[in-house]
Write a structure and sequence with these properties.
The structure holds 2 protein chains of 2 kinds. By secondary structure, chain A is mainly β. Chain A has 1 helix and 11 strands; from the N terminus they run ββββαβββββββ. In chain A, 37% of the residues are buried. Chain B is mostly beta strands. In chain B, 6% of the residues lie in helices and 33% in strands. Chain B is elongated. The model of chain B has no long low-confidence stretch (mean pLDDT 86). At the A-B interface, strand 1, strand 7 and strand 11 of A face helix 1, strand 7, strand 8, strand 9 and strand 10 of B.
Amino acid sequence: MSNITVSRPAGAALLRKLTQPLFDTNILQNGAAPVPLQFFQIPFGGAMPVTAVAKTLCDTNMTQAAQLGMPQMFDLEGFQFEYFIHANADLANIATDIFFLYEQSVFTFFFGQARPWLEVPLSQIPTGTALTGTNSDGDITANTEATWLHNGHASVKSLYRFTVGKKAIRVQSAESFYAQITWPNGVGAFTWGVANSRVRTYMVGSLYAAL
Amino acid sequence: MITVQEPAPRAALRALKQPVFDTMECPGAGAPVANLTFFQAPLGQNLNVTGVAKTAAETNLNQAGQLGVPQEFDLFGFNITWENDDYWFEDTGAVGSLPNFILDSVEIYEASVFQFFFGQQRAWLQIPLVKVPHGPFCVTGPGDVAIDTEKYYNIHCGESTKDEFLKFLANDAPISIHSAENFSARIDWPLAAMGLTANGVNSKIKVYLVGVLYAAL
C-alpha cells in the first residue's frame, strides 16, 4: 500500500488592477565620484544609501527587496528617471553635474536571473512630469538660480516605452528585478550644491494588488 | 405578514464633465504639518490656516468625504496645483523673495507623496507628488523681468495642457465612485513636516479629481 500525498494548490488571491507605478530613490553623493546606483533593491524601511535614513513612502513603494511579494503582480509599460537638484546651488556646477550624470551613463534593467533586459544610455530615459515654467535664471542679485531641469517633455506621456506590440511585460510576484545606473568610462565627482541630490526611477505600469 | 421593501425611486442624472476639487492651505515654518488631507472639509467649512470659510473657489464638495445622494462620479485621474502668492508665480518683487519661493518649491515637491484613499481607507494610489501634473496653467511663455529689482518666477508641474493629468484607469475604464462611498486624498511629507517661508504662508494646494460628475437634473 503506497502512501501518496497530493498537494493542493494555494488559493488564488483576488487582485485589483491599479494604475500605480513602482518607484525607488537613491542618492547622488555630493563631492564623490559616482558609484553604481541601484534601484528596487532596498525596500520601504531599509536604509537609504549615503544618508542611511530609513526609506519612507516618498522614497519607495517597494515592500520587499527586488521583488513584488505575494500576491502582487505588475504589468510593466516603461521607465522614467528623475533627479531633484536642491535649489540655491551654483548654476555652473549644476551644468557640470548634469553633464556627468547623463553624458556617459548607462541605464540597465535586470529581470529574472540578473539578466539585463534593457541597456540604454540614461539620456534615453525621460523624466516625465516635472517642475517647469518661465524664468530659469533667477535672481542674480541674490546669487540664486532656479534649477528645475528635466529630461524630455515634462509630460505624463513621456516615458521610455518597454512594451512589445503594445503588450506590457508581466512581472510575477516572486520574480527578481532591479534597475542600475553605471558610468562604465568613469566620471568626475559630482558637485551638487548644498546637499546630496535625490534620483528616482519609476517602473510605469499597472499594479495588481490584493483587495 | 410579509413586508416587501420597495427600492427608493432613482434620480435622473445628467453626466457633466466636471471635476471634484478641494483646497488646503500651506502653513508657515512655525507650524509645520506632516500631511494635508483633502475632501474632508466641504463647502462652508473653514480653511485650515486662515480659518476663512470655503467658497466655490475652494471646493465643490457638499459633504465630507463623499459625494452625497444622488451624485456619482467616474474618476479618470488627478491634477494637483500649488498656488503660491497670487497664482503659481511669485511676484512680490523684493530681492530675496525668489530664493524663498525656490525653497518653498523644494519643500512642497522634493520629498512628498500623494495618496488617494477609497472605501475602507485603503490607499488606491501612492505616488510622489511631483508626478501629478498641474494640467492647464494660467500663465506660460517667456517674459521674466518686470523691473530691475523684480523678477517674476513661475513654475508648474508638467506641460501646461488639458491633456495632462495623471491617469488612474482600471483596464482602460474610469473608476466609479458611488454616492455614499468614502474617499479622500492626502499629501504626506514623511521626511520632515512641511512649513513654508513667509512668502509662501497661506499659499494653496488644490487636488482635482478629473472625470465625469453625474448630477441630479
